[in-house]
Design brief:
Largest sheet: 8 strands, parallel, barrel
Number of helices: 11
Distance between the termini: 35 Å
Radius of gyration: 20 Å
Strand order of the largest sheet: 3-4-5-6-7-8-9-10
Helix content: 25-40%
Bound molecules: 3-methyl-2-oxobutanoic acid
Number of domains: 2
CATH topology of the largest domain: TIM Barrel
Shape: globular
Strand content: 5-15%
CATH superfamily of the largest domain: Phosphoenolpyruvate-binding domains
Structural class: alpha/beta
């Protein structure tokens, strides 16, 4: 794949993006300083990464949401370093010069610096340019250690799905003033530990705006309103490929389900009526 981490301008103009494509962790800071909104999309496989590489998105997230979206599980807890590395390798085979962030899976930042370093190394060797770690309290030293070891880390606060058992479900977080105060402290601590960006998931819009204004690194929101420095959505949700799932914070930018059904329907009809394949479609 390309070398987004190479020694070049962190924001480099490309053909597919009339503005600038993010090439490194520093590029995220530069985008914020330039007032450019950051666009992140999840990807779990090579073919969608290949399609996305030819669009003006800034970066791909190999999210542990793969466990729900791809593997059909009810939460993300089943993700392992091996599963995340497999998805990351697939994505990196298709992602061209896009910046790729891979999720550190459930508990991987809670078993000490050495375990986290091994897991992050596996993800970087599989092609990621950075890792994302949920939460902050209790493992800030791990985040600092990874950053000092040359591994760019993206933080993730608010609704952190790896804590779903403790949170009691996928719910909006930090509504209470004391929780909001803790989140602000955590965001500042993540920046201090060296995180190059922070995902804010499902928190009140006013809080997300306040945190975004308080940090020099960008925030990337999902269910956190327009005050964030960028936005991330799950690819299948924004393409309308997840018909049973309509969270308030997401938007369908295409009717992928109709496209999918129409394609499969047309294929089935053509096979049954004998119009596919034609002789010109054989050898
Ligand atoms: O796993 C994931 O897809 C994520 C995003 C929703 C931010 O963490």
């Amino acid at each position: 794949m390309g070398n987004p981490g190479g020694k070049m301008d962190p924001l480099t103009p490309t053909l597919s993006s009339p503005g600038a494509r993010i090439r490194s962790a520093d590029g995220f800071r530069a985008a914020k300083a330039a007032g450019a909104k950051i666009v992140m999309v999840t990807a779990y496989d090579a073919w969608s990464a290949r399609l996305l590489a030819d669009t003006p998105v800034d970066c791909l997230l190999v999210g542990d949401s793969a466990m729900m979206v791809v593997h059909g599980e009810k939460d993300t807890l089943g993700a392992t370093p091996e599963i995340m590395a497999l998805h990351t390798r697939a994505v990196s085979r298709g992602s061209g010069d896009l910046f790729v962030v891979a999720d550190m899976p459930f508990l991987s930042a809670r078993r000490g610096e050495s375990h986290a370093l091994d897991c992050a190394a596996a993800l970087l060797r599989a092609g990621a340019h950075a890792v994302k770690i949920e939460g902050a309290r209790g493992h800030l030293h791990v985040i600092r250690h990874l950053v000092e070891s040359g591994i760019p880390v993206m933080g993730h606060l608010g609704l952190t799905p790896q804590w779903v058992r403790e949170l009691g479900g996928f719910k909006v977080q930090a509504r209470a003033p004391e929780e909001a105060a803790m989140l602000k402290e955590d965001a500042a601590a993540l920046e201090d530990a060296g995180a190059f960006a922070v995902v804010l998931e499902c928190i009140p819009q006013a809080l997300a705006r306040e945190v975004s204004l308080s940090l020099s690194v960008p925030t990337i929101g999902i269910g956190a309103g327009p005050g964030c420095d960028g936005q991330v959505l799950v690819l299948q949700d924004l393409l309308g490929l997840n018909p049973g799932f309509r969270p308030r914070f997401s938007r369908r930018f295409a009717d992928g389900t109709a496209l999918f059904r129409d394609g499969a329907q047309s294929f089935a009809t053509a096979v049954r009526e004998g119009s596919f394949p034609l002789e010109t479609e054989g050898f």
